[in-house]
């Protein structure tokens, strides 16, 4: 179970790590029944290989949302 502060720290560390990773379109927090997780939004499934399963003990989940474009 991860608390919000631990998840925020993990999100920050992961954001730096994935800053230049192609296909990563967003990184945020999500609440699950087991606590907070870091959620990584991807343009396509190929980008998932760059995302670790956890960061500092906080679980990382991915979701393919497609390319994000401004309106």
Q: Could you give the order of strands across the largest sheet?
A: 1-2-4-3
Helix content: 10-25%
- Overall body shape: globular
Q: Give the number of domains.
A: 1
Mean of residue pLDDT values: 93
Number of helices: 1
Structural class: alpha+beta
Major sheet size, sense and barrel closure: 4 strands, mixed
In whole angstroms, how far apart are the ends?
Answer: 37 Å
Which stretches of 5+ consecutive residues score pLDDT under 50?
A: none
The ordered string of helix (H) and strand (E) elements is: HEEEE
- Radius of gyration, Cα only, in angstroms? 12 Å
Strand proportion, as a percent range, falls in 35-45%
The tally of strands reads 4
Helix and strand layout, with pairings?
Elements: H1 4-17, E1 24-32, E2 35-42, E3 54-55, E4 58-64
Parallel strand pairs: 2-4
Antiparallel strand pairs: 1-2, 3-4
Question: Can you tell me about this structure?
Answer:
- The chain is built from one helix and four strands, in the order H-E-E-E-E.
- With 71 residues, it is of the alpha+beta class.
- The protein has one domain (4-64).
- The chain is globular, with a radius of gyration of 12 Å.
- The termini are far apart.
- 20% of the residues are buried.
- The mean pLDDT is 93.
List keywords for this structure.
alpha+beta, 20% helix
Summarize the structure.
This protein has about 70 residues and is α+β, with helices and mostly antiparallel strands. The chain contains 1 helix and 4 strands. The chain has one domain (about 5-65).
